[in-house]
Amino acid sequence: PIYKFEGTIARLMGDGILAFYGAPIAHEDDPQRALLASLEILEGIETYRDKIKKEWDIDVKVRIGINTGLVVVGGVGSDLRMEYTALGDAINLAARMEQTAEPGTIQISENTHRLVEPIFSFEDLGGIEVKGKLEPVQAYRVLGIKMQPGQIRGIEGLDAPLIGRDSELPTLRGLVIELHKGRGQITSVMGEAGLGKSRLVSELRKSPTPVADKKTKLIWMEGRSLSYETSTPYAPFVDLFSQHLGLDKDQKDVERHQMIKDSAARVAPDQIDEIVPFLASMLD
User: Which helix (H) or strand (E) holds 242?
Assistant: First the structure.
């Protein structure tokens, strides 16, 4: 899971592993990647736990601690032995989070919680006494991914008007008008990170678009493809259809399959036998 989400394993320490995200490859969602990898580690260890319990009657559990902060990263050592690692107080606090976590859980600091709070659900553990800190450190236990994740970008409660984009936004509105007339298209919005691509699409979605036929209803569907999903077939379509159909990964396959059939029946009742098997296969 650490490698899957493009993290770096710096050191194997007996019964522990030191891994970090953000170097040598940095992503804007590195804290999120760390939590996703941690959840997969806890899930993946269950099979091994059952095996050890059955063969040796020993209960093996993993605990994980995460912190976000500034560190020094690079090659440390000499010509005889060199390792690529991270050093700094942020690493020490991550270790303290791990040491004070309950077995079988993920515990994170306030520094990490602030960056991922809209996406995951947590249990507030309050202030925890940790070695090397004069004041208690706020900690949280990770419970899982939220059913309806919030928005990472922007400041909660603050809505500022869009300034500029005087040609781009009218162009997109014109394409929506064409869509109402029955002309489908593919449009690409390209730009460097932070230039406002997501904001532009958001403005299009919430802005009224004049159309000739007021009875025409526009259904807005979104599917996202994340950078660590490059090996996941049809990732944006899986996300799009899962949201549109209201599928939950915790549901049983029978329930999910029935929801796909019900949705297909509403849209194309005479093509259920052709549509459902393909959708069901794509959505696993």
Answer: helix 235-245
Q: Are strands 106-109 and 64-66 parallel, antiparallel or unpaired?
A: parallel
Give the 3-state secondary structure of residue 77.
strand
Residue-level pLDDT at 233: 86
Mean pLDDT in residue range 204-230: 76
For 33, the token pair is: 């990647």
Q: Rounded to the nearest 5°, which phi and psi values hold at 157? A: 85, -5
Q: Where are the beta strands (DSSP E) in the chain?
A: 8-13, 16-20, 64-66, 72-77, 82-87, 106-109, 120-128, 137-145
**Per-residue pLDDT reduced to its tens digit, 261-271:** 999 999 888 99
Mean of pLDDT values over 223-235 = 81
Determine the 3-state secondary structure of 9 from DSSP: strand
Q: Which of 278, 248, 249 is nearest to 261 (CA)?
A: 278
- Spatial separation of the C-alpha atoms in residues 8 and 77, rounded to whole Å: 18
Contact 248, 215 (CB under 8 A): no
